Amino acid sequence: MTDPLLALRPWEAPEVTSWGRLAMNAVDRRAGALSLDGDWRFQLLPVPDAPVGGVWSSAYVPGAWTMQSAGADDPPQYTNVRMPFAEFPPRSPAANPTGVYEREVDIPADWSGRRIVLQVGAAESVLLVHVDGRPVGISKDSHLAAEFDLSSVVRAGERSVLRLTVVKWSDASHIEDQDQWWHAGLTRPVLLYATDPLHLADVDVRAGRDGGLRIDCRVRDARGALPDGWCVSAELEGELLTQDREFDRVNAEDERVSDFLGEARIRTTVPEVRTWSAETPELYDLTVRLHRPDGTVADTSRHRVGFRDVEIVGRDLLLNGERVFVRGVNRHDFHPLTGRTVSYEDMRADLVLLKRFGFNAIRTAHYPNDPALYDLADELGLYVVDEADIESHDHAHEIADDPRYLNAFVDRVSRMVLRDRNHPSVVIWSLGNESDYGAHHDAAAGWVRRHDPTRPVQYEGAAKLDWAATDDASDIACPMYAPIEDCVAHALSGRQTRPLIQCEYSHAMGNSNGTLADHWAAVESTPGLQGGFIWEFRDHGILQRVSDGRPAGRAGAGLYGNGVTAPGHRWAYGGDFGETIHDGAFIADGVVFPDRTPKPVLYEHREIAAPVRIECHRHEGIVLGNHQHFRGLDWLAGEWELSLADGRVLTAPAELPDLRPGETAAVPLPFEVPRTGGETWLTLRVRVAEDQPWAPRGTEVCVPQVRLRGPSVSWDVPVDGVVRVDDDGLLVHPLLTAAPTLSLWRAPTDNDELGGIAARWRDWGLDTLVRKVVAVRQDGGRTTVDAQYAGAAGVVRHRQTFTPVEGGIRVDEEAELPEDFHDVARVGTVFETVPGPDLLEWFGQGPWESYPDRSAGAPVGHHALPVDELFTPYLRPQESGGRHGVRRFTLSAPDATGLTVELDEPRQVSVTRFRAEDLTAAAHHDELVPRPGCVVHLDAVHRGLGTASCGPDTSLPYRIPAGVHRWSWTLRVL
Ligand code: IPT
Fold it and tell me: What's the EC number here (predicted)?
């Protein structure tokens, strides 16, 4: 006999979103639940209706089988927009891996007479539930839990066989076409719980900044009509609130309420309430109890309540009446060992890191994240844009108005709202991502607006048609990757009708995020702009064993740290599991590496978001400002640091003034600024003064800096000496294995490649320039070498003049780029040193990597790092390791031999073990072989990074014009 669930063929029936599934609710069921996590019997079938009966292996729950040995025949696959199969919606491919999970469950004897519920945390993408061979239910919606009432199919004290069948591809896959790895399995915990037949069916808590608290409960009795005399009580921080005994009257007077549905309402006002915000995540413990007519407790639900208001006034989004800046990031549930399954500890670590780097908001791109994430956001203080699991990208237009999918859209949005509405962190509902705009969105927005008028709703696809519209499915204009100039123009146009907060901006793929500081300068100075969400949090590199190409697995062998993998492993991206349809390294576009090592951009972001800033005013001296929205500065401590060019560094404790948000004050410096010592910088190191939930005391929060004095020019006086060049006009020097030559090329960044810029450079022949010496002249001690560098697009003239100076050689360089070379990667010098030097010390910006358009977070100072730690191991090797604004540097070996270079002006410098061609040739970090010496670049100019892999290219001020470029440097032996 055909199984009725299979007979429905629910994997090709978009109208079927569930069967036998309980309504979503926000009742907390963790206490007393029976976890079913662990190893389950497992079979991977080729198609959903293949007979079960082969050999069982085992699979771990929660987990995706694509990441486990049981799923060796069905590895992960990465596609962005395109579907991994050719079938049109609602069809799925004939080959459709289907995982059958099975295990025995012993139903506790003391559950007799109780209502027994199965909760499946997440199943990707269609779930069929059977108990002892009997059909129980169906669910879709891969990132929300599904609950089924098992009371009639299991018996307390007896053993049952629970089978969860998960079909990988379905009609639902077409609306789960997010830019991420395709996985399949039971990716969140599975549990069983029991309640009294008389139970809380839902609890809805609303708490405002005026202390107003509103609790609405739905009550049901599984036996039928509700008994007379039940009531609900609530306890806030140990204090009992009014019990609602009004239900009978409500039932009697309100014809809409039947004997079968009880509604209890509790209203109170908490005096002198401590309000919740991302800066002040004040939470109150709330326990809601349902009492039987005899007063005993039938059901309990615990919540943590944050009192806060979200509202849109005019074109501003206000949190507790304040126009807050949204410093957000897009976050997927991702882990390099387990794929879509994330642990509480991992989520906490994600959020703690975000807080430490100045973020205050998360968009749960592009589906409701694991439930624990919202608890953590409440507790640590992060605003959440909660996004429904809808992205129909590849077939967006067909689906947005296909009536067969209407139910699925409303189902997914409403279930998310019903799950998450009690979280103070959730401030905005999002209808999904990249799904065109159709009637389904209006239907879903209508449901949300009616059901939860306390929060705005947003949908990028609706608002993009006209940012100034007032009648679509979005209360916020939330574009993606809009040039900041367009946002400013809109805010100044007089047409702005609603907040403008980019749902995605500044694409963090590889070495990227150029002009973040310029972007924020515009946001902070333009009323109407409030920020946005960087794309994205984490590189989705899966830890892969190179030997057999399989995911390394849960145990974590092969993790190393600092962003790189242990030998024999690599970070896999699209194509690395043998997929023929894939989108390569586009999956690696986070501000942290797969192992959560911060990328340099995070320091940039931290500084841009600094709660404390300093300025140097001619009359007032140093002025300090509190740039928070809600807090004073008492949770912070400071230390002044004065860096002089002559190498002196003075430090002194800083007294942070008592400033309210938005206030500034002049502050005295606790030391005299020396009159000598050259260029002088004042840095305020700001640290956490008392332990915060996200940072122990002493954690650095920001390092604002001002320049107190400019450089005093000291340039070398020529002395008699000898400079040797060979027949090709190349400098001969005992410490250099490759003489200084002109460099116009860099190993293309992901932005350079995907933005088409590298292709242009290759067309011009920048990567294969041929050098030819034209003339070598001696003039006194001075040697001038004229050379030409020929590429397909023309010839670059280059002159080097070598002058012996006290203890070394001064090199003056000049390059003339013809008009056709108007936008190159860099204009500068490259040379290579002998093996030995392994430490770089420099006076300039640092200590982390910085580039011309990403240098706001790297203060000027005296920095030192081992050469091997200067390089940033972006997943696909590319230009990296640069330091901006370098005035001089020393490269030394352990025996103190080495060289020092003094630059004429602050310049872009990089010291690595790799030539640009080494980086260009490698696809993964593990393929790189470090050279024994150092490859040193000194650039007169270096093209900014921009964000062209998705979004605007490097902005004009950071591009390199044609014409003449001049730079000078002095090389000395230590
Ligand atoms: C945008 C997507 O929303 C996001 O999921 C991701 O793919 C991002 O781009 C790029 O990494 S959509 C893009 C077509 C603008």
Answer: 3.2.1.23
